[in-house]
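Quick one, probably user error.
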């Protein structure tokens, strides 16, 4: 990939699809999505009866370009470059969290995951309601904390480190593992060893360590089949405007590739109609990723 593409609507100085011209940025940058899925002004309309319920939802959508280089993804970032992205994730979450309870930072990498532009970038969707998946996470962590007085994911991290066979890699501050309940072949989670409820709560040591650890995790993915590994990745942290003691911030990686660069897992048949099944165990997937020499 070239460092600059004159036809790319995310490269510095180029015009985006809506006609807005990008600044000549030199580091990560965020801006309003030209085609937002959520709008900040929506009437409080609710349609409900005994069987169906629908209501309007308000929010905002932004794009985060990781850097000006069209051809360099996070896997190639030096720690100081990755750190600027982490800090922008955190400040963006804090800014939008002042208005919206849920701020979803995510990246769809690669055409296989529907990425419309190869320039390395992610997205942020913030909304005035709790989506279903993080709402279930919130309830599960809240119930566990209420019963045990400890955070659920902190206990999971400790248990995974003790058992070891699902852990792919660990650093001084972070653990990367294939979760016991993983659905995608090489699905992983990334969480801190020490308590932090949101990206905004990460201290200096956690951010500095993540700046080295995260690119190394992605490089391990890329080396598995010798291609830029497609995935959807996103951060989950405590909702804003509510208690956060039961939460541990964490990232999900959900990549579709199964046996090679050209064979992906499809959710079809029994998996769509009954429940997902694993094509290899969590332990086997972790071993495959661990065995890669970087």
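Nope, works fine. Designed sequence:
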């Amino acid at each position: 990939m070239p460092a600059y593409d004159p036809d790319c609507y995310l490269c510095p100085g180029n015009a985006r699809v809506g006609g807005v011209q990008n600044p000549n940025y030199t580091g990560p940058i965020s801006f309003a999505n030209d085609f937002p899925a959520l709008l900040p002004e929506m009437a409080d309309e609710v349609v409900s009866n005994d069987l169906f319920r629908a209501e309007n939802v308000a929010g905002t959508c932004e794009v985060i370009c990781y850097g000006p280089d069209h051809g360099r993804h996070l896997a190639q970032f030096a720690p100081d470059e990755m750190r600027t992205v982490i800090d922008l994730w955190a400040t963006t979450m804090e800014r939008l969290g002042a208005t919206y309870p849920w701020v979803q930072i995510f990246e769809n990498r690669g055409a296989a995951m529907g990425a419309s532009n190869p320039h390395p970038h992610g997205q942020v969707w913030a909304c005035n309601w709790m989506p279903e998946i993080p709402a279930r996470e919130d309830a599960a962590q809240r119930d566990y904390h209420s019963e045990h007085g400890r955070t659920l994911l902190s206990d999971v991290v400790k248990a995974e480190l003790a058992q070891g066979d699902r852990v792919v890699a660990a650093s001084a501050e972070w653990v990367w593992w294939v979760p016991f309940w993983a659905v995608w072949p090489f699905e992983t989670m990334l969480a801190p060893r020490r308590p932090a409820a949101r990206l905004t709560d990460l201290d200096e040591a956690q951010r500095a360590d993540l700046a080295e650890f995260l690119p190394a995790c992605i490089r391990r993915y890329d080396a598995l089949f010798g291609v830029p590994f497609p995935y959807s990745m996103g951060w989950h942290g405590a909702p804003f405007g509510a208690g956060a003691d039961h939460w541990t911030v964490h990232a999900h990686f959900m990549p579709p590739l199964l046996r090679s660069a050209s064979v992906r897992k499809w959710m079809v048949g029994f998996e769509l109609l009954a429940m997902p099944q694993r094509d290899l165990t969590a332990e086997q997937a972790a071993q495959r990723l661990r065995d890669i020499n970087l």
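The chain has a mean pLDDT of 96.
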